[in-house]
Design goal:
It contains 11 helices and 4 strands. It is mainly alpha-helical and about 350 residues long. The protein folds into 2 domains: about 150 residues, Glutaredoxin, CATH 3.40.30; about 180 residues, Glutathione S-transferase Yfyf (Class Pi), Chain A, domain 2. Strand 3 and strand 4 form a beta hairpin. Helix 2 packs parallel to helix 4 and helix 5 packs parallel to helix 8. It is globular and about 50 Å long. The N terminus is likely disordered. This is Putative glutathione S-transferase. It holds the Pfam family GST_N_2. One of its GO terms (cellular component) is cytoplasm.
Length: about 350
């Protein structure tokens, strides 16, 4: 099941590759290519890739909101040991994400400099975007899937035998229809809506996207004014998907993408909700604000030709009291918070207020 309810969606790095290094289609409205590698890793292995601890490597960038979802879900469910993680740098060119954060510029497990190498090992001549997140089969070095919307659901539903004790149920059976409905609305108008503003090629397209974005944010504010989480009284997949957009709103989307009716800090309900999640183990400890800002401002050169990265905003306010406990709810339901992230996966303390 995808964000839209009818198929997967592309991330902005695919747009860059498809358009020869440019994001904005002059005079037009931003649209997303819906073609993804739909192979699934399942408990029964029906696509040829069975759930198997130690076999797969999750390739991500901390800059990317779609990859950030997988990082959070993997943390919350305690899948760090069963599924290893490769972290690409915050920037890329039109060819591929690179593993430039590693000492020799190669992922130490896959042995590749660019994620594209894993795509081409399975699909020579692959002509779509080389996107993160992606899951790679370590024995063959071949990409398995980049269908990120399904990937996060499968971590919840197919990898249950390997969840940590106390892992939350992020996609409970009784709430799936409502979660899917909320996710579809949030994707259309918010997750993708900020890109529809930022990559709009005409005033008319921008204004349509801008109105849809803030109408949906107002709707979300009304919904969350009386309940702590989006669906039910615990954290679900719906909260993960909204959070990764909200946490990027003031550092990037407000200015860079012209989503400037208000900052997140000027929307009291959503700002408190975002801080509540940020301060919840498994959320804020995955956020690298430096990587986020560098990606958008350095890579989107047709929007920000100089590549200058802003110094602000101040991040200390992410740790201020939010008061959302008064609404009740139990973040992890009958479960428990995840332990701290493995030392090798901790965000640089200089890049987060949690440092």
């Amino acid at each position: 099941m995808s964000d839209t309810g009818s198929g997967s969606t592309t991330s902005d790095d695919e747009v860059l590759q498809r358009n020869g290094g440019k994001y904005v289609e002059p005079g037009g409205e931003f649209t997303r290519d819906q073609r993804y590698i739909a192979t699934r890793i399942t408990a029964d292995g029906r696509d040829g890739y069975p759930v198997e601890p130690g076999r797969y490597r999750l390739a991500v960038s901390r800059a990317c909101p779609w990859a950030n979802r997988l990082i959070i879900v993997r943390r919350l469910l305690g899948l760090e040991e069963p599924i290893s993680m490769a972290v690409a740098g915050p920037t890329h060119d039109k060819r591929s994400w690179t593993f430039d954060l590693d000492p020799d510029g190669r992922d130490p497990v896959l042995g590749v400099e660019r994620l594209a190498e894993s795509y081409f090992k399975r699909f020579p001549g692959y002509d779509r975007g080389i996107t993160v997140p992606a899951i790679v089969d370590e024995p063959t070095g071949q990409v398995v899937t980049n269908d990120y919307a399904q990937m996060s659901l499968d971590l919840s539903t197919e990898w249950t035998a390997h969840h940590r004790p106390g892992a939350p149920d992020l996609y409970p059976d009784r709430l799936r229809a409502e979660i899917d409905e909320v996710n579809a609305l949030v994707f259309k108008d918010v997750n993708n809506g900020v890109y529809r503003c930022g990559f709009a090629g005409s005033q008319e397209a921008y204004e349509r996207a801008y109105r849809r974005l803030f109408e949906r944010l107002d709707w979300l504010s009304d919904r969350l004014a009386g309940q702590r989480y989006l669906v039910g009284d615990t954290i679900t997949e719906a909260d993960v998907r909204l959070f990764t957009t909200l946490v990027r709103f003031d550092p990037v989307y407000h200015g860079h993408f012209k989503c400037n009716r208000q900052k997140l800090t000027e929307m009291p309900v959503l700002w408190a909700y975002a801080r509540d999640l940020f301060q919840t183990p498994g959320f804020g400890d995955t956020i690298d604000f430096d990587h986020i800002k560098r990606h958008y401002y350095e890579v989107h050169r047709d929007i920000n030709p100089t590549g200058v990265v802003p110094l602000g905003p101040d991040l200390a306010n992410w740790l201020t009291p939010h008061g959302r406990e008064e609404l009740g709810g139990r973040p992890f339901g009958d479960g428990t918070p995840p332990p701290p992230p493995p030392a090798a996966e901790r965000v640089d303390p200089a890049h987060t207020p949690l440092g």
